[in-house]
Amino acid sequence: MSLLSTDPRLADVLGLFTDDLGVEVTERDVDTDLDELHGWDSVNLLRLIMLVEQATGRRLALPAFLEARTIRRIHALLGPDGGAEGQR
Fold first, then answer.
1. Does residue 27 sit within a domain?
2. Rounded to whole angstroms, how far apart are CA atoms 87 and 12?
3. Which of 3, 40, 48, 61 is the Cys-Cys partner for 86 at CB 3.0 to 4.6 Å?
4. CB atoms within 10 A of CB 49
5. Angle 9-21-54 from CA coordinates, rounded to 5°
6. Is residue 85 in a domain?
């Protein structure tokens, strides 16, 4: 069974990377360190934080977001409702 079928929110997170940031990722990349993703850089990290904050209407806890080094950990950080766990 695929991760996307067990947790459809993961598809939303992957969509942020592919559609909004232009960093092509698939389900296989969820445990890859962000620095190993082709096309990933620090500007994309800032853009991702901005996109998530805009989508959720909540500010992210920046240190926790910086420690989330994989798509899976970013997905977990967003919590079950898609919002950020904790606020700055």
1. yes
2. 21
3. 61
4. 17
5. 60
6. no
